[in-house]
């Protein structure tokens, strides 16, 4: 995907040209940190290809996965923080090799004022992220860790369109907000049930 094929642009040539004028395109490798918690928000990322995982960290350094940002999407937390000149409340890390278009925060108000399609894009993102955060809350409150682990693996496989997932047990535990030993035990049980095949830093969904 490139700027010309972003879904929300449709046939809006004027908005497309403004994004090209304002935007800065960069490529990141898997595992690169795009946004750190408590950092100043200077630009809004729009993912052109690849994926970003958005996490939150507690006072003890434990992380939990909030949602993924896929191609054609942006981070609503960055939108809100940038508009109100607040520091970031989340950490954003690339899930794979990712191309991002960065729009400076001082251009966001201009785009909202002049292009209704841009405002509609933000509202649709906000709605989607709100639903995803509700799913996270419900999963933590009502879903067993083994079910959450399987759902996480399925989501990662869907993102990369590949049933072989490159991830350590420690990484999976961090995204679930659980312990490495718990994840390792659950993965072993899942392998015994024929749900996965385990390799070195790789997990294959069967």
CATH topology-level fold name of the largest domain: Jelly Rolls
Q: Find the CATH superfamily of the largest domain.
A: Jelly Rolls
The assigned CATH architecture of the largest domain is Sandwich
Low-confidence stretches: none
Helical content, roughly?
Answer: 40-55%
Radius of gyration: 18 Å
Structural class: alpha+beta
In DSSP terms, counting alpha (H) and pi (I) runs of 4 or more, how many helices?
Answer: 7
Morphology call: elongated
Describe the protein in words:
This protein is an alpha+beta fold and about 210 residues long. The chain folds into two domains: about 5-140, Sandwich (Jelly Rolls); about 145-205, Winged helix-like DNA-binding domain superfamily/Winged helix DNA-binding domain (Arc Repressor Mutant, subunit A). The chain is built from seven helices and ten strands. It has helices spanning about 15-20, 75-85, 110-115, 115-140, 145-160, 170-175, 180-190; strands at about 25-30, 35, 45-50, 50-55, 65-70, 90-95, 100-105, 165, 195-200, 200-205. A four-stranded antiparallel sheet has the order 2-6-4-5. Strands 1-7-3 form a three-stranded antiparallel sheet. Strands 8-10-9 form a three-stranded antiparallel sheet.
